[in-house]
Amino acid sequence: MATAEILHEGSATLVTARVQPFYRPELDALRFCAFLAVYVCHSIPNGTVSAAAQAHGTSWLRLLAAVKDAGNFGVCLFFTLSAFLITELLRREEGAYGRVHVGAFYLRRMLRIWPLYFGITVVYAMGGRYFPAMHMESGRVLAYFLLAGNWYIALHPWIQTPLRSLWSISVEEQFYLVWPLLAHHGGVRSLAKGAVVIVPLSLLTISVVSADKVYAYNTVWLNSFAQFQFFAWGALLALALHGDAPKIGRTLRGAAASAGVALWMVSAYVTEIKRPGAAVSSSQFCLGYLLVAAGCVLILFAVLGISRWRVPGWTSYLGRISFGLYLFHETAFLLVDEVQKRAAKSLPLLASWLSQLPMTALTCNKIAALGITILLGMLSYHFWESPFLRLKQRVTWIQSRGV
Q1: Regions of the chain short of the pLDDT cut 70
Q2: 362 occurs within a structural domain
Q3: CA-closest candidate to residue 162, choices 331, 375, 325
Q4: Residue 4 and residue 398 in contact, taking contact as beta carbons nearer than 8 Å
């Protein structure tokens, strides 16, 4: 049992309440899986997608491009999982204390996200003055600081900066600026109503924004209102389960998870909502995003309730540091590419081998980058994020962290 302290309104008496914690290690493991999906997406060269666009008929190249496109949906799974967890915590907070404390929510959010988010932005803004690979124009840096990076990228070229993934943090923070306010003023019931309203509004946004056929794959993806539906679905699942976990067997869990991944692949391969240059209608965009949402819900549903004894400890740990993994993985790409270039110049035999076995070289490159990503994530979590997380515990009313 976790101890939480609150100050009742109109009273100077500090009341201590014992509240049941809500921690599921399988959700940490799922976070790591979501990161891996994004990592695979970013590991497959963009040239693969370009080549697939020119390929005729069904080919392994088109399938590989679809895998790359589907990897993007790991971000949607992050959103769905995040909303599920936070909505459940808000529900429990209201049940235990009679209300949702908005100020404490914002403070927890800032202590969890802002130190690493703004820290890495500052490092790159300063480093860009000396290292071209880290350079970002001032407008992009300002947009990141204003938590509006997704809107800036939607209106400007998507440059290959190692911080391009920060757009999704902007979307998440924009959503959580409003979500706890809704719970505070209208109670948990208002969250259900809000989620039900968000889904059709999101689909309407997708339909309108996708009218620009040339860049719709990008502008729809970066639109906050298009992405909000994934938060809505996660919230609805949390409210529907009401704190319980699905009591289903391994076979059904495996089928649900497989169906979820299959829906991602159908969305990527058939509707092509993330394929640059593809001729996709507005109805296809709406269908594609609904398929992704259904896939996210099925995957989350399949994982919920897995016994902690069946969740490998290392996957839970990597899930806990997944925020750092997500932010650092493209920096790791940059470091490994630089080492590879320098090694190729110094070792002609190595350069010859790399040119003859490009897929093997790419695989080794990305495996090395994954190792560096995990190392950077561990260092960040233990030496930079942890002090802020300890502060966060002081305003945490429902315990949700693993030890």
Answers
A1: 1-19, 48-58, 309, 350-351, 354, 357, 401-403
A2: no
A3: 331
A4: yes
